[in-house]
């Protein structure tokens, strides 16, 4: 008689399809997506995580695209948990951009998706509403606030998608930086004196440090449009 083991490890019991719902499917996806691997969210792996037949997922999501958009929205909503607008718009804007990024980078495979899509769901709407409220506090008219929101949100999403790509690369990312420095060291300094002199500094900059620096430049630019000095 067979037993519930596979290579000596205990298998998860199969869940009946009617025991599944959107929330526990998304919970399982988040558990898988915390792994920095590029193929963690196949329906086969999700079904295995749930102990259910992968085809049962189609009862709750029309296709993988719908599931991934719901997952991206869940992650963005998680980043918004506990957020409260403060008295200084610059500080609140910075907090929003850091919160969303940090939440997405907990799930790199989700972050790469979110960089290219709009979810059109509650988590995204809360983020948009919060940022527009911050820009209203700053004193921007609605149209300019909308344009600044778009620039800031795209900045965060694009950079976060890039950062997630670095996480998925793993050690290869560090190898690229080392190769960058080594290759410039072979170039005649007289031909590219500034580049050769600066490459070591540039390669040492960590991704999060770089994001924060660029974010500061952006917020300084937004403040300059108002003729205000940014709060540190």
UniProtKB/TrEMBL annotation:
| Source domain of life | Bacteria
Q: Name one Pfam family in it.
A: TetR_C_1
What keywords is this UniProt entry annotated with? DNA-binding, Transcription, Transcription regulation
UniProt entry tagged with the keyword DNA-binding: yes
| DNA-binding annotation, residue ranges on this chain | 42-61
HTH tetR-type domain sequence ranges: 19-79
* InterPro entries associated with the record: Homeodomain-like_sf, HTH_TetR, Repressor_TetR_C, Tet_transcr_reg_TetR-rel_C_sf
Q: Which PROSITE patterns match?
A: HTH_TETR_2
What name does this protein carry? AcrR family transcriptional regulator
Q: Which organism is it from?
A: Paeniglutamicibacter kerguelensis
């Amino acid at each position: 008689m067979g037993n519930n083991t596979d290579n000596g490890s205990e298998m998860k019991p199969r869940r009946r399809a009617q025991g599944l719902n959107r929330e526990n499917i998304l919970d399982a996806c988040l558990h898988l997506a915390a792994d920095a691997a590029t193929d963690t969210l196949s329906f086969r792996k999700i079904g295995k995580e749930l102990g259910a037949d992968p085809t049962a997922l189609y009862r709750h999501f029309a296709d993988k695209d719908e599931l991934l958009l719901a997952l991206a929205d869940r992650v963005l909503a998680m980043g918004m948990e506990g957020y409260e607008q403060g008295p200084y718009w610059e500080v609140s804007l910075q907090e929003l951009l850091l919160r969303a990024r940090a939440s997405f980078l907990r799930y790199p495979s989700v972050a790469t998706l979110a960089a290219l899509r709009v979810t059109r769901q509650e988590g995204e709407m809360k983020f948009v509403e919060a940022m527009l409220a911050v820009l209203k506090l700053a004193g921007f008219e609605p149209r300019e606030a909308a344009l600044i929101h778009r620039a800031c949100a795209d900045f965060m999403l694009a950079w976060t998608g890039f950062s997630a790509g670095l996480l998925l690369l793993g050690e290869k990312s560090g190898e690229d930086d080392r190769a960058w420095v080594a290759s410039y060291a072979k170039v005649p300094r007289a031909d590219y004196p500034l580049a050769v002199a600066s490459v070591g500094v540039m390669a040492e900059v960590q991704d999060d440090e770089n994001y924060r620096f660029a974010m500061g430049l952006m917020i300084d630019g937004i403040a300059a449009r108002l003729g205000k000095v940014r709060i540190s």
